[in-house]
Design goal:
Two copies of one chain form a homodimer.
Chain A (H helix, E strand, L loop, with lengths): L2 H13 L8 H11 L14 E6 L3 H10 L6 E7 L3 H11 L6 E2 L15 E4 L6 H10 L3 E4 L7 H14 L3 E3 L7 H11 L6 E9 L12 H4 L3 H17 L5 E7 L13 E7 L5 E7 L4 E8 L2 E5 L10 E5 L2 E4 L7 H15 L7 H20 L3 E2 L1
Parallel strand pairs in A: 1-2, 1-4, 2-3, 4-5, 5-6, 7-10
Antiparallel strand pairs in A: 7-11, 8-9, 8-15, 9-10, 11-12, 12-13, 13-14
Helix pairs in contact in A: 5-6, 6-11, 9-11
Enzyme class (chains A, B): oxidoreductase
GO molecular function, one term (chains A, B): nucleotide binding
Protein name (chains A, B): Glucose--fructose oxidoreductase
Chain lengths: 379, 379
């Protein structure tokens, strides 16, 4: 990352100041004010890593655009939308200059905009591959929403495009950048409660509008598994630190339900990992599920909510004692965007790279094959 | 049931008196004292339904024998053990007369003891069928510990023996007689939170002594599934109120672990029910698991602990509200023993009859077949 940000981070660490849910500039201002009269007044850090957000749907409006208020090094420098009016209104609200506004027709011109270092692709699933590849060709780093693409074949092409452009490709697994998930991963992999035996991951919600693109096979690539079940797949993988060798899935989709004409409602699935850990998982568009639990020899680790955008919950079952822990939770999106900024600055690959995203898709394809054939499938 | 007990129950209902964790005689005495000076003084109820407990291992000592202090109509009138000394000592402690003491050699003479109405069989699994059949031949009702037997073939013979003797055969699924489980079943089947979609049941513990009979294939009939996983099978069945049509299981048993030379450690299994509900379950001898959860359209129902002998926990997730409920929990074993006493008195079959027990075994056999063949199995 650029020097000013490093300096600011070191400064905050040195003074012990904490900044919660406030814009960094304001927070830095407070620190500066608090230090008035002292000798060294640090310069407020600059946000130097520019993002264009591609696709201005619900998630962009509710979480991604507001997250730039909480970033340390990332700033919003571009907006890409099919609607000029929407883009202009948001540009005014978030301070994006006119030269940062693009339609899908003019998209490739981002190549000429030096203020855009990376794009954050928040388009419907079936467009992820195309826009990732075009963005890399335009010389940009890419952060792409999950699922990375609708097929592993597309994932391969995206990974190749990143390599050819010598740019980073990251998949937006925001939970890897928040402290509860990070603490869980560390405790499980450190075998704090002994050898992990069983992993349970359930992700789902009762989806509403039957007309949304997520319920169209071509656009969503599948149903609940592509959108929400992927959290369970991803969690079982990050908790175990392993890739499954075998999967089995059982589907149920309510007959006559207009939401599930093209795609699946619920898939219960199992995964076998090389160490012997067995995972039981659920993906559903019919009921709320938002939990994982790792059962080890001497106790268990639970998160519920496990996949929400904020206010996660964590419990550790140690013998007869249930420990509830409260950790300081940053804006997941801000932390994730800053991670790619840092990766780019340092020249180190992002944590949730294209291979990570492809590994989820590989498992999901195997689960779909199992559901289709009624047989367990080797991954 | 005999008249005095009916009278007492009606009396307690009429006065609104409650009797918690005290012997009925003492409690009845309190009620009598409270009513001193009033006109009608009810007779303390007699415990008229006599049980012989067959097998004096850990469960009998820790829970079953002490439970007779909490029964309304059941009394301990017999003890059957291979150890004369152990039987004599317990007989003295629990007030069982000499004529109620039997060894396995003299077992069939229970036929001549009119104080024994029923036997409660607490022997190793492989002896359940033989002792159930001998008990029915001796003209006794039978309450047999779970699993009912090691094979469905044995279950069939047990059911036939009960029919031939015109006596009741009940399987000791004690949770059906405690109010948390009963409340859960009612709420789920009444669709209080909409249509149930996914059932999760996990039952397990980290078993210790490698030399116990439960870890011998011939004696236990199998491993964790027979002993503890059966709770998950049973729960998925009583919660849904349905019988599964298809199962799939994945096993892992730690290589080189002396506990799992003959039998399985962990099986993760799935069940499909006719209504479309899918169940994800775990059976394990390697880690503590003690929970079920039913996810419906508008929320979920959870019990944890779900299968313990006391101090169960219940949560209802209704929208964003988590309701924790505390119900008065009787002694599970006392309630179960009294239920069979009542069944016998009324001439109504017990709730957890031989068919119920056989249905669990049918599912377990299908899960074992799935594990062996690596294929889903139709039940």
């Amino acid at each position: 990352m650029s020097e000013p940000t490093q300096t600011r981070r070191d400064f905050l660490r040195a003074t012990g100041a904490t900044v919660a849910a406030a814009t960094p500039l304001v927070a830095a201002g407070d620190v500066v004010a608090a230090m008035a009269g002292q000798q060294a007044v640090p310069t407020p850090p600059a946000k130097t890593f520019g993002y264009a957000v591609v696709g201005l749907g619900g998630l962009s409006l509710s979480d991604i655009l507001p997250a730039f208020a909480h970033t340390k090094s990332s700033r919003l420098t571009g907006l890409v939308s099919g609607s000029v009016d929407k883009a202009r209104a948001l540009a005014a609200q978030y301070g994006v200059p006119d030269k940062g506004l693009y339609s899908y027709d003019t998209y490739d011109r981002i190549a000429d905009n030096p203020d855009i270092d990376a794009v954050y692709i928040v388009l419907p699933n079936f467009m992820h591959a195309q826009y990732t590849i075009r963005s890399h060709k335009a010389g940009k780093h890419v952060l792409v929403e999950k699922p990375m693409a609708n097929t592993t074949k597309d994932c391969d092409e995206m990974i190749a495009a990143a390599a050819a452009a010598r740019k980073y490709l990251a998949v937006a697994y925001r939970l890897r950048f928040e402290p509860y998930t990070q603490a869980m991963i560390k405790m499980v992999r450190d075998k704090e409660l002994g050898k992990p035996k069983v992993i349970l991951c359930e992700a789902g919600f009762n989806t509403r509008n039957p007309d949304q693109w997520r319920l169209k096979k071509k656009e969503g690539g599948g149903g609940s598994m592509m959108d929400i079940g992927i959290y369970a797949v991803n969690a079982a993988r990050y908790l175990s630190g392993e890739e499954p060798t075998e999967v089995f899935g059982m589907e149920y989709s309510t007959p006559g339900d207009p939401r599930f004409v093209e795609v699946e409602e619920t898939i219960n699935f199992q995964m076998r990992f090389p160490s012997g850990v067995l995972a039981n998982c659920v993906s559903s568009y019919g009921t709320n599920l938002n939990r994982f639990r790792v059962h080890a020899e001497n106790g268990s680790f639970e998160m519920e909510p496990a996949y929400s955008r904020r206010a996660l919950g964590m419990r550790v079952f140690r013998g007869n004692v249930i420990e509830q822990r409260n950790l300081r939770e940053p804006d997941h999106f801000a932390a994730m965007m800053d991670h790619l900024a840092e990766s780019a600055a340092k020249g180190t690959p992002p944590l949730t790279d294209g291979v990570d995203g492809r590994n989820d898709m590989r498992v999901i394809e195997a689960i779909y094959e199992s559901v289709k054939t009624g047989r367990p499938v080797k991954v």
